Amino acid sequence: MSASTEQQEDALVTSTDPLHPANLISELCASFYNLGWVTGTGGGICIRTDDKVYIAPSGVQKERIEPSHIFVLPYPQAEPSPHTDRIFLRRPKLNLKESACTPLFWNAFTVRNAGSCIHTHSQNAVMATLLWEKEKMFRISHQKMIKGVRIGGNGPALSYLDTLEVPIIDNTPNEEDLKDSMKEAMEKYPSAAGILVLRHGIYVWGDDWQKAKTQTECLDYLLEIGVKMKLAGLPTVLNECQ
User: Fold this and answer.
1) Which residues have a Cβ under 8 Å from the Cβ of 127 and sit 6 or more positions away?
2) What's the whole-model pTM score?
3) Is the confidence at residue 1, as pLDDT, over 70?
4) Which of 73, 87, 134, 170 could form a cystine bridge with 53, CB 3.0-4.6 A?
5) Phi/psi of residue 166, each to 5°?
6) At how many degrees (to 10) do helices 123-131 and 209-231 cross?
7) Which region among 39-48, 75-84, 175-184 has the lowest average model confidence (pLDDT)?
8) 197 pairs with which residues across the strands?
9) Which one, of 238, 218, 236, 213, lies nearest residue 145 by Cα?
10) Residue 82 backbone dihedrals phi, psi, to 5 degrees
11) Could you give the C-alpha distances from 174 to 101, 200, 208, in angstroms and in order?
């Protein structure tokens, strides 16, 4: 690689603008780490802007990610398949691998036309998958924070009177192998704003990073209160026989 080409690639993740995707991903991953969402190098985030996708690396301390660690991919491109090479506009100089979530992030782009997707290993999400494992669907109603979630993740906002539903899919040993089952669930439940993964975590998306972050926060709150209600023997959906 020539010096000029390397400089052009590095320019994709170098900016003094705090809202540049490379800077945002570093900042948000540190914030998510402090929330307990991306500990142990798990979880991740991607941001799509026009014809580029910015993705955090895999297997690194998420609270210590730097802009220079970010991968940049062109968009659109053929849907990344599990365990295959992808087209990159920029790779970090360090020996890093792009997030194993990449094919699943692409689901958010192609199925929901999202601008950002977040994956967390929140304990609230994991507990919800265990308590609603039989139903394969987390459901809750009459909670104020439901208003922070949009139909399908990028449609009209739900109301206090709506029943929020989040599908639960089975986990796989390798993250990338969740791609097809996640896509099937998104297509089967077009109103879902996220997908829970059994004993694993949750994927949430939005039109941009702000909306994806907001919905992830609202869903995590609802998952937490739902788990507490379930364990207390309280119905999470009103006006319905439990």
Assistant:
1) 223, 227
2) 0.94
3) no
4) 73
5) -130, 115
6) 50
7) 75-84
8) 169, 201
9) 218
10) -60, 140
11) 10, 11, 27
Both structure tokens of 185: 């669930």
Average pLDDT over residues 209-226: 98
**Structure tokens, 141:** 């109603």
- Counting every residue written for the chain, the total comes to 242
Separation CA 202–CA 222 (nearest Å): 13
Integer Cα distance of 73 and 158 in angstroms: 33
Contact residues for 235 (Cβ-Cβ < 8 A; gap 6+)? 229, 242
**169 within 8 A of 196, measured Cβ to Cβ:** yes
In which region does residue 43 sit, left (phi positive, over 0), alpha (psi from -120 to 50) or beta (all else)?
left
The residue whose two tokens read 């609270």 is: 63
User: Per the structure block, which two tokens stand in for 218?
Assistant: 């609202």
pLDDT band at 55; cut points 50, 70, 90? very high
Let me know: does 88 contact 53? Beta carbons within 8 Å: no
Rounded average pLDDT over 16-21 = 97
**Between residues 235 and 50, the one the model is more confident about:** 235
CA distance 206 to 154: 5
